[in-house]
Structure formats: C-alpha cells, structure tokens
Amino acid sequence: MITKNSIIGVLMGGVSGEAEISRATGKAIAEALSSLGYHVVPMEYDPHHVVEQLREKKVDVVFLALHGKYGEDGTIQSVLELAGIPYTGSGVSSSAITMDKIFSMRVMKQAGIPMADSMPVYLRDGVEATAEKLLAHFSFPLVIKPACEGSTIGIEIVRKAEDLVPALERAFHVEPRCLVEAFLDGEEFTVPVFEGKALPVIQICPHSGTYDFHSKYTKGATDYLCPAPISDELRDKMQAIAVKAFQVCECRGVVRFDMRTDSKGQPHVLEANSIPGMTATSLVPKSAAAAGTDFPHLCEKILLGASTGKI
What we know:
By secondary structure, this protein is α+β, with helices and mostly antiparallel strands.
C-alpha cells in the first residue's frame, strides 16, 4: 500500500542519449508529488549501483522517469523485479517490446494494428546491399529509424536515391539495427492510454513541417492542438487503435502511441512510448488536462499503480 509516508524514489537521468530529457521529466514529477505531500527522493540513475542506491535511501517504491536505453527497454524493470521493489509503468517484456521498433512492429502488425509498410535492416548485411534491397522495395520518400532510440534520435527522412547510402551510414552509426518505413504524408498525432483507457487525441503541428528533435524540444517550434480538431470518426478510430496496441503489448500505467495519417486520412501507429515525457508541458499531461486531470494528480494516479510481478 502506497501512502504519503512511503518513500518514493524518482529515478531519472542515467547514461542514455535521452538522459537530460529524463532529468527534466524526473524533476517535474518529484515537484508534483511533493506538492501533494508525498515523501519524494529524486535520484540520479546509476545502472551499476541502482539497487544499492535505493536500499541506501530506504526507497519503498520507484517512479520511473527514465527515457531511452536501460530505462524504457526492460533493463531497470528486471532489476526492480528481482529486488522486489514496486515500480511504475510497464513490466519487463512489455517494456522491451515497445522500446524496440522492430519487435513492436512485428507484434502490432500481427495483431492487425495499422502501421506503415516497413522492413528491418541490419548493418551486418552491408550498407550497399541494404540500399539495393530498399530501392527494390520502396519508393521515396522513406524513413530510417534506429530500432531502440527515442526522441527522434538518428531518424533519417530520405527523399531521393542518391541520399540513401549516406543516410543509412548515419543511422547505422547510431545503431546497427534499423527499421525502414514508407513515409506517410498526412498529419501527426499522439494518443496517450492510461491503464487501458484512451485520453484525448493531440495533433502535432511542427512549424518546420517535420517533427524532429529540434521541433520536439525547442520552445515555440511546434503547436499542439488538444483535443485535436478532427472528426469524431477519426478520433474514435485512433483511440481504438491505441487501446488495442496497449492491450496487445500488455502495457501498464501510461503509454503514448504516436500516429500519422496517410494520404487517404487513415491513421497508422508509428511507435509506442512506454515512459513518455512528463513535464507539466509534455504531451501526456496536456491530454490528461483536457480530460480534467491536472499534472500533480496525474503523477499520483501513475504512482498508485506501481507494483511488481508485471509481464
């Protein structure tokens, strides 16, 4: 039972490429829970000594504010399961699947969830051979995504054949496994799901036309419309897709599903975010606010769902 007397360790930072973003998330969560009277201990994630850190601070429950590798991929979840320390969010297998774009694509497509035409590619097969295979399968533009990075790190949008090999080289420098997708030329959306229930849809409108790292993390570079100004039919369809993806991947807590429409206006899932950004101005809090839940109470609801023994 989690109470105001429980010691809440908010775990943030770490060694991934998204560590600084994680620290912003963790700081905001810690402040929000403290404002409600919880005993909060903000903690910098040291993967090699994390259990020692938690034991030293006598932490009763961990609020995971980590992004990227070793935080969203099932690694820390497995450590906390072994240590018997309750934690927020999805379990080991679910976190590993949703973090990996290749595996999550296979799982969701098999379940009939709409996604773009895609192909996994590997550095071990050679850049030139991979480029030839892609040229035979895709038309341009196409998108190259490192399999296990978030925050749009390493993503390449390739618009002509002569740019394909350099783009593959850059993407493989980030990670030796990538997912290549057909480019969807519609609008960008995201749908948070909290414990199996969809929250309001957000439309993402980057001023540059591309929702890249700059558009995502530069103040004023992107407009977020919530609830999205779309038809009830499209809203219901996207929310149903997000809920089904949440169920198929056996997620827990709050998970954000990014989507994009095609030229016919049909939505497709781009990826899942099992520990989405959680500052007061992040997307999930915007959606929750539109549904009537303010940021501190959203954090509290997530906290009260912490447990062990998850998939």
